[in-house]
Amino acid sequence: MASHRAAPEHTHPDDVPVLTALAALADPVRAQLVRELAASEDWSRSCGTFDVPVGKAAKSHHFTVLRAAGLVEQRDEGPRRVNRLRREEFDARFPGLLDLVLRGD
């Protein structure tokens, strides 16, 4: 019997409090995920392609936090879950915040 995953829930950046956004970006693993996504084409990276120093369950948790903060959108393509950084929407809500994280200062 095939297993079916529920579609991930997404929070629009307009509905994200600033402290939620800051907390999501403050974690080094999540900041690395965001940097790698920013350097990739939309929908080109599946969750398993990120080289972060955590296991699969922890990585899944980090993506859940990023979705809840309005930073990442995900969709399922066959067995893969692919990702898109919601750069334009997030920048409209929090101008300049993502640029600071991507610079790595």
Automatic annotation (TrEMBL):
InterPro entries: ArsR-like_HTH, HTH_ArsR_DNA-bd_dom, WH-like_DNA-bd_sf, WH_DNA-bd_sf. Signal peptide: none annotated. Coiled coil: none annotated. One of its GO terms (molecular function) is DNA-binding transcription factor activity. Residues 10-105 form the HTH arsR-type domain. This is Transcriptional regulator. It comes from Streptomyces aquilus.
